[in-house]
Amino acid sequence: MNTLRRFGRTAHFDHLTMLGKLGLANIAPASPYLVGTTGPLKGARLLFGITGPPSRLDELTRELGNHLGVGMQVMEDSLCNWQKSPAAFKAFRG
Questions:
Q1: What's residue 75's pLDDT?
Q2: What is the pLDDT of residue 4?
Q3: 15 part of a folded domain
Q4: How many domains in the chain?
Q5: Residue 24, in any domain of the structure
Q6: pTM
């Protein structure tokens, strides 16, 4: 993926998860990869109420996603969207 130089972390994550969803590659993220993020990391800190290192929040997010039976793309997207408005639901249409 490093050959796609214009892609940042989010674009790489979304591109690879879409390849998996479309069945073009047998891949799915094993982690939300919170290290180096802004929105999802902020969401994880709000959710878990800790300011610990991103690697610890990554671990907690994986555990919660596994417990809920949802994949890491769902967790990453949810954290990112929720942190934008944690007190009131705002539908994401993008």
A1: 94
A2: 66
A3: yes
A4: 1
A5: yes
A6: 0.81
